[in-house]
Amino acid sequence: MAYYLILIQFFLALIALFLFWKSIEYFIGMWRYKKFKTMPLPQSYREILLSLPHYLDLTGDLREKIHTRILLFIDRKEFVGAQMEITEEIKVIIAFYASLVRLGFALDEHDKVATIIVYPEDFIVDRSSTHNGIHTNRTSLLAGESANRTVVLSWKDIRHHIASGSKENVIIHEFAHELDFEDGMPDGTPELSNYADYPRYAQAFSNAFIILTKQVKRNLITEQAAFLGSYALENEAEFFAVCSERFFMAPHALKRLFPDIYEELRKFYRLDTALMFKAP
To answer: Looking at residue 131, which CATH number applies to its domain?
Structure first.
C-alpha cells in the first residue's frame, strides 16, 4: 500500500512540476509580448515591409498586430545562413510571411518552428525509401523543406515569388507543412479546433484532390488544375500546402475555383483573406 502511495505522490509531483513549468513559459511569453507590443517597429523594418504588396493591403489594426508578431518571431527564432549571410531583409521578409500564416491564431498557438535555415538558391536533398523490399535513393532539388521544427528555404525563390507577384510563396508553403505536421501525421489535415469540423474538411479536400488527379491522368488540364499546379497532386500534404499558398497569395481565385476549400481554410486560419487583400 505504501508503495502505491509513494507512486501516486511521485506522479502528482511530476504533474505539479509540469504545470509550474508551463506557467513559467506562459508568463515569459506574456512578458515578451508586452515588451514587443510597446516597442516601435524599426524604420529599416518598415521600409522592407513597404516593398511587400500584401503588407500594403493590411488594415491599420492588422499591421500593428503583425508588427508585434514580426518582432517576436525574429527574437525567438534561430536564423542560420547556409553558404550565405543572414541579412535584416531576409529576417523581416520571412518573419512577415510566417507571421501572416499565424495571424488568426493566438500568440503561442501553432508555433512550433524553432530554426530557419536559408540557402542562397535551390538546395539538394537526398532521400531514401523502402517499398515492397526495394530500397531506392532519390536526389531532389528543392526550394523549401520542413521537418523537426526546422524550415529550410531558398532565398532566390523567395525573392522571385515576391518580385513576380506569384501565386506561389515558399515561406507560406513550408510553414503550412509545419501546421500539418503538428499532429504527427503529414496527411494534409492539420489539427482543427473542433472535432466536428473534420468530416466536412476531409470531404472538401478529398473531393477536389481525387477529381483533379483523375483529370490530370487523362491529360485534361482544367482551369482548376492549372491554378494549383501539378505539384499539388503529389500527395495530400502537398495539396494542403499549395492550397494554403493560394489562400494567402491568390485568395480571390481560390474562392472562385474552390469555394469549399476556401471556406475550410478560412475557418482553419481564422482569416478571410479575400477581404484582407485586394483582387489583382
So the answer is: 1.10.472.150
Instruction: Give DSSP secondary structure letters for 248-277.
Output: HHSHHHHHHH-HHHHHHHHHHHT--HHHHS
How many Å apart are CA 21 and CA 241, to the nearest integer?
Answer: 33
Pairwise CA distance, residues 280 & 132, whole Å: 48
Segment 119-131, tens digit of pLDDT: 998 766 654 444 4
In this structure, the answer to whether residues 236 and 145 fall within a common structural domain is no
**Residues whose CB is less than 8 angstroms from the CB of residue 126 and which lie 6 or more positions away in sequence, other chains included:** 137, 138, 139
Q: Identify residue 178 by its one-letter amino acid code.
A: E
Residue with cell 508551463: 22
Contact status, residue 117 vs residue 83, Cβ threshold 8 Å: no
Same domain, 177 and 241: no
pTM: 0.82
Range of the domain at 89: 14-182
Q: How far apart are CA 252 and CA 72, in angstroms?
A: 30
For residues 233 and 212, give the distance between their C-alpha atoms in angstroms, rounded to a whole number.
8
Alpha carbons 161 and 230: distance in angstroms, whole number: 18
Calpha distance 45→93 (Å, rounded): 9
One domain, residues 77 and 45: yes
Together in a domain, 35 and 151: yes
**Residue 174, CB-side half-sphere exposure with 13 Å CA sphere:** 26
Question: pLDDT, tens digit, for every residue of 221-233?
Answer: 899 999 999 999 9
- Note whether 50 and 156 are same-domain residues: yes
